[in-house]
What we know:
95 residues, 1 helix, 11% helix
Amino acid sequence: xxxxxxxxxxEHLAIFDDxxxxxxxxxxxxxxxxxxxxxxxxxxRILRGETIWTETSHKYSQxxxxxxxxxxxxxxxxxxxxxxxxxxxxxxxAR
Length: 95
């Protein structure tokens, strides 16, 4: 997109929200800067300390995943957990 972000002028910030069981990932500006995204026709100012919200990763228990599947029209079929990183792959079948 021909953007001119100076990635060295951002720091990674992870915020854990215990109540909602998620982690938000942000990039926080280390200094005031103006960024242009040429192909989008955008130019904007980012102030020191402002963040760009880049990701939200939700954390669920197995029982929560089963309930979410049932509530949204799926049948929970199985789960595979990575022992090293504690990530899970879940198989839901549409009903």
